[in-house]
Each structure stands twice: as structure tokens, then as C-alpha cells.
Amino acid sequence: MKRFRAFVVKEFYHILRDARTLLILIGMPIVQILLFGYAITNEIREAPIKILDHAKDATSREITSKIVETEYFALSGYLKSEADIEAAFHDGTTKMVVVFPQDFGKNYENGIKREVQLIADATDPNTANSLVNYVEGVLADFNLKANLTSMPFQINAITRMRYNPLLEGVYYFVPGIIAILLMLVSAMMTSISITREKELGTMEVLLASPMSSGQIIIAKVIPYLILSFLDALIILALGKFVFEVPIAGSLALLLGVTLLFIMLALSLGILISTVAQTQQTALLLSLMALMLPTIMLSGFIFPVESMPIPLQIISNIVPARWFIVAVKDIMLKGSGLFIIWKEVLILCGFTLVFIAASIRKFKVRLE
Amino acid sequence: MKIIGYLIQKEFLQIIRNKGILPILFVMPILQLLVLSFAADFEIRNLKVFWIDKDQSAESRLLRSKFENSEFFDLMGSGFSYKEGEQMLELGNADLILEIPQNFERNMNREQKGDMLLTINAINGTKAGLGSYYANQIIRDFNSEIATALATPMMSPFKTISATYSFWFNPFLNYKTFMVPGILVLLVTMIGAFVSSMNVVREKELGTIEQLNVTPIKKYQFIAGKLIPLWIIGLIEFTIGLIVAKLVFQIPIVGSLLLLYFFTGVYLIMVLGMGMFISTVTDTQQQAMFIAWFFLVVFILMSGLFTPIENMPEWAQKITLINPIRYFIEVIRMVMLKGATFDKVQSQLIIITIYGIVINGLAVWRYRKVN
Question: Is it the case that residue B272 has pLDDT exceeding 80?
Fold first, then answer.
């Protein structure tokens, strides 16, 4: 046991003496959650639009001001003719052009349908689609008010946003940030640190010690386990106290699932290090096989339901996907173990498979 | 010049002889481009609806059929109590619950208005917002349909203004058209920054740098010898990605290829210089990787790749001005999709060039031949 302690202490020294890495290890979760909390959003605010008003009458002006009044749009100028539209889009400063045709307001009072023409820059299809939706919303409001007297009756939808009443983006991102950081610290750092010993030849020294190979590996991963856990705590605390992301469910369960995921990531890191011979290979392997799928296929940024079917199937083998679902359920919905047992079971299964595979692959002898 | 030539030869041999690196360098990015481009989709369709109808009237059934026929919604089940719906929401089997209260039809006929309840799982705010928008649209249409059906010549005619729209540069709102060029930038940047940041520090860690330090090689020759092979690899990488984008995803390349390559070339020098600089200030590969990762993540998130920069708050938008990835993503989208010409991307080019000169200068300056 004393020997084992000495090993763990040695690993801690490795990490603690590297001030820069340590700084980033602590700084990274903070920076990321601040970015996601404040800067990363799909909400459109004040998209610059231009108006091409051929009609120049009371109705066209009223609608223009109604559109610009909303928080979604900002008027960035008027165009003179159709020929200017393309140029306006080219430098990327205009997201949409609203065109009122010549005879726009004429006949309006007589009930003949009038049309506004919207031209959106669809290089970003999301934004384009939302902008058009917002204008349609403004027009629908306008129509409703104009025809209030002649409508026989109205159905109103009372909308309630469950679990995230203010539609805060950060609610959605917190579980994903935890998953990514845990993958980074546990899987990537561990795999590189073990491969490093191999590459520099110090692994030989370790293997020649009276410690068993299992103990060596466990001693190696303990500091990373503690660090990862610390990172997860930082994110949860920042989420809770800065962004007021609730933790509706049981904190113990949340931390338990987090710990399980850390174990999973660590065993994955060990597995990678048994395959890779150099740090560079270990890095690129974990980067390409772990980090990118964790970011893209786990439902962190892009919803899994929106993916094509083959990718939805592939996403099943991305461990982070299950972790994120479980964390969201616990934190935001307040679900208990009886709701998320499936996710927990899957994560356990992954961990066992990775550990078994690393034991099979681990060689005590060097070639 | 001859010295640089030898150094380049050495680097290439090292890369080619490393069986582990080559497939990762070339196969993985293509796989990633393919997979990620299909995955990166915000499009929301098939929202799962749970229907609670406490009224069971003609009107409520008519409304239900409207939801059934919408391409945005999938009716996954129906029940009679809110509790059932709440459970479905918690299990993730439903995205929204629509509840028609008792006496819905009666209230409509008596008071000319009826309320229905819409409960949405809002964990994903964007999705919830769209869901609410689509649902309200259906209800609005339903309202005006009833209105038209009941309209009598005695009433004043409806005054409606509607919108027609056209989507330029991407008429079918293909999300891949938007994402693929961006992901291409991402891959070129990541490979470039990581491989270069781990390169010099690797020699340091393994001790082989001492052998280079005792040669008469000048500092700039050393850096150039490291940079040029990676620059060539980066361009090959970019070419492969471009071919995949064109052949697999049919992404249009409206603008000039020459301009695209010119910009990529300048950009790569900048990215590689950044990696080199990290490499010269760190002592271990792990450290280098970690620092590179940290900056890349921040740069990527703030680049406008996933979420538009205009949506960010003012201060965050200002920060993105020092983000080099932002400029490349802007340029690649402008040139590939809108056919922007040289004068439109001039300012971005100047910024990247200045960046490149500064960062490579720093790398040469920081590289010490003496310990």
C-alpha cells in the first residue's frame, strides 16, 4: 500500500509541477461554460435587414416599423432597386431584404390579398428560415388586429415551456460541456500520459518495479480521476450559481453518474494507450475517435433526432450520448434512477468492455 | 535553400515511415467530414406530439387531423389526462403535449374563444421555440379557415397581407451547404495546429533536438523546414476535403478556386505558425496538445461555425475579431457559396497575413538553440 501511495504521489507531481497544464485544466471549464452561457446562441437578435419599398405608402411604412420594432431585426438601410439586392448580400452585412411591390397598399382595404416579398440570404439556412418565420409572425399579428371585428372566433394556445421556461441555451449545453471535459481530461490526458512513459522508455522502469501492472495503471489514473471530478464540480457550480441552471434531481445520483462516466473515459484512455505507440498517435486517435464524435454525435450541439438514420445508429456507440441524456434528465427533469436505469446500465456495459479489452491488450513485456 | 530542402526531406521521411500517423492524417479527416456533415443538422422535423383531448368534439378532432397532416409533427399517442402526457415528456417519448380542455367547443360557440394548452419540453430552447412556432401556425391557419368558412357577404372582407419568400444562394435550405465548408476549415485547422504544435516539442522530448541544435542550421531554416512539409500536407488535406464536398455533398463552388487556394495557403502558414509557437514554448507533447486544444476550442466555438456571430452579445462579437478561424470560415462561405471576388475578401486576407507574420516571427524568435 505504501508503494502504491508513492506511485500515486509521483503521478500527482507530474501534473502539479506542470503549472501551465494545471492552469488550463482549471481554466478550461470556466471559460467554456462562460462562452456557452453568454456567447453561443442560436437566438437571433437584431439581424441586419434592408428594405426595398416601391410602394412608399402608409401600410408599407407601418409594416416596416412593425418588423423593425421586434428584437429580431435591425434596419440597416434602404435599397433603391432590385439590382442592389445582390450587392447587399455579397459583403455579408445583410441577412434579408424585404420588398414591397409598387401597388402594395392599393386595394388593401377591399380585401384583395397583398404580398410582401422576402429575400433571405440562405447561406445560413437556419437563420434564413427563422427570419422568414419571424416576419410571418409579425404579419399574422398585423392581420389579426386588422380583422378583429370580422373573425367569428379564436382558438388561443397557452404555451408552457417545461424544464426551461426562459429557453436558456445554457441549460442545454451544461451536460455536454461536462461530457467533453471529462473525455478530454480522463481519456485524452490519460492515454497520452501512459504512452509518454512508453515513448520515453520510463515504462520499462515502472514495469520492472515490484508493482503489478494493474497497480501501475490504477496509480496513473487516480490523479486524473480526481482532476476530472473537480472539473465536473466546477461546471456544475458555475452552472448553478452563475447561470441558475437548476439541479432538480438528486445530487448524489448526478455525481454518481458523473463518476461512472469518468471511469468509462479512463478505461477508454487506457485502451487507447495500449494500442498507440507514440504520444502523437495517441493524441490523434483520441482526437478523431473520441473528441469529435463526442462533440458532434452525442446530441451536445446537434440533436440526435435530426440526424439521418445511419448516424443515429452510430450515435448509440458514443458513450457521451447516454451520459448527456442521463445528466439532462437528472438535472432538469429531476428524474430518478428508475427513469435513467437504461442509460446507467449502458454506461456500465461500456466501461466493462473497455476494461476487459485493455486487460487483454496490455503487455507487461516490451518488444 | 539546400539546407531547407534536406530538412523537408527528413520531415517527409519521418511522416511517411510512421505507420500510425499516415492513416490518421488522411483517412480520418475524410471520415470525419462525411460523418460530421451529416450529423450537423439543426433542422427540426417530426416533433413528437402527445395529444390529450378532453373534449372529444368535432372541432377538436378537426384540429387533431391538422396536426397529423403536418410534416413537422408526429402524433405518437393520445390520452385523457395531463399526467400521462407529463410522463411521456419525462421519458423523452414526447416533445410536446397538446391539451384540449373540456367544453372546448362549447366555449368556442358561446364566448367566441377557446383556449388550449401547449406544453413543450424546452431543454433544447431552439427546438422548443420552433415547435411552439409551428404549432401556433397550424392553430392560426385553423382559425382563419373557420373564419373563411363562416364568412357571410354581410361581413367586411378580410384584409390580409402575406409573405412570399425566396432563399438566395441556397434555395432548398440545405444545411450541408452551410456546414460542409465550415467543417472543412475545422479539419484543416485542427490537423495543422495539432501536428505542428506537437512537432518541435517531440524532438525536444526525445532529445533529438540537440542534434539539430549543434548543426549550422539557422533558426528560420529550422522553422521553415518544419513548416513546409506540413503546409503541403495541409493543402493536400484541403484538396481531398474539397473533392469530397463537391462529389459527395454537391456543394457548389461558385467563386474562384484559385482565390480559395491562395487564401488557404496563407491561412495554413498562420495556423502552422501558431502550432510552432506553442511547440517552442512548451516542454512536453502533452502540454503542447493541451494548450493547442484549449485555444482551438475557444476559437472554434467563437468562429461562427455552429452559431452565427451576429447572435452573440456585443462584447463577444468584439472578441471574435481576434479569432483567425472566424475569418477563414467567413471567406470560405463567401467564396464557395456566393462567389465573392478578391476585393470582397481583401480585408480578411490582410488580417490573416498580419497574423501569420507576427506569429511565425514569434515562433522563430522563441525557438532557442541554446538551453
Answer: yes
